[in-house]
Specification:
By secondary structure, this protein is mostly beta strands. It is built from one helix and six strands; from the N terminus they run αββββββ. The protein has one domain: PRC-barrel domain (SH3 type barrels), CATH 2.30.30.240.
């Protein structure tokens, strides 16, 4: 299983080949001990969190390798 330090900072690419950002944090359900998704930063900063952050549900991840490939477009 991948660990947080292996995922943070990876580029996230949608099905159009567009880099939508880099993984900034993970959304984890501690009750079920499952990965729910990735918080992806797109730039900008506002009130303690990047203004362009978006949550990518784990169900939309196709492959995790050097980069994270998604099953759909998010731009």
């Amino acid at each position: 299983m991948l660990i947080k330090k292996e995922i943070i900072g990876k580029e996230v690419i949608d099905t159009s080949g567009v880099v939508i950002g880099k993984v900034e944090d993970l959304e984890v359900n501690f009750e079920t001990q499952t990965l729910e998704g990735f918080m992806v930063g797109k730039g900008g900063f506002m009130f303690g969190r990047s203004s362009g952050d978006m949550l990518i549900p784990y169900e939309n991840v196709k492959v995790i390798g050097d980069k994270i490939l998604l099953t759909r477009d998010f731009h």
